[in-house]
Design a protein that fits this description.
Strand content: under 5%
Order of helices and strands: HHHHHHHHHH
Structural class: mainly alpha
Largest sheet: none
Helix content: over 70%
Radius of gyration: 18 Å
Length: 189
């Protein structure tokens, strides 16, 4: 995530982070379903309207890095060096994301997500949106000759690679194994 440069942007980012931290702390202490939006706003010492100016829904509080995740994936495509191969760039980004999401403390968050139907559904819709965003970046890339269908399929595989690797006993090895298949599929399209 880029660091905001202006005072106003820094204050907005700090408020957003304060809200997200308060929400996660409450969700993990009391359980996701037992905590309301008003509870989170009170804990973060902000108005409910302020909370909603930063987060569109209660579920979005759990996935506060959602936009950053999507941007990182599309930048892996658009910002790579002119002759850098695509699939290794995506693998590198997914490896970094998996490393972040499997760090100490993350297991309790994913357990909470698994236990909540609303969070599982939100995560699934988020993954589909990320896949569409990544596919759009792939299709728009002038250096790639694959069809839109191939780009959409590979984008879904990349997003699924993240989810599958995150749950594996050895997440980094899982990323490598999955990306061998992705690379093979990309080369035949």
């Amino acid at each position: 995530m880029t660091v905001p440069t202006g005072r106003r942007e820094r204050k907005k980012a700090a408020t957003r982070q304060k809200i997200a931290d308060a929400a996660l702390r409450l969700f993990l202490e009391r359980g996701y379903d037992a905590v309301g939006i008003r509870d989170v706003a009170a804990e973060a010492d902000v108005a409910v309207t302020t909370l909603f100016s930063h987060f569109a829904s209660k579920e979005a509080l759990v996935f506060e890095q959602d936009d950053n995740f999507e941007q990182r994936l599309t930048r892996a495509v658009t910002d790579r060096a002119p002759h850098e191969p695509l699939i290794p760039a995506l693998r590198r980004e997914i490896r970094a994301m998996v490393r972040h999401c499997t760090a100490d403390g993350a297991a309790s968050i994913y357990r909470m997500i698994d236990e909540s139907r609303a969070l599982r559904e939100y995560e699934e819709s988020m993954r589909l949106r990320h896949a569409e965003s990544l596919a759009t970046a792939l299709v728009a890339n002038p250096g790639l000759s694959q069809s839109a269908t191939a780009c959409r399929a590979i984008a879904r595989f990349v997003i699924d690679a993240f989810a599958l690797a995150r749950e594996a006993a050895d997440p980094q090895a899982a990323v490598d194994e999955i990306f061998q298949m992705i690379e093979a599929a990309w080369e035949v399209t």
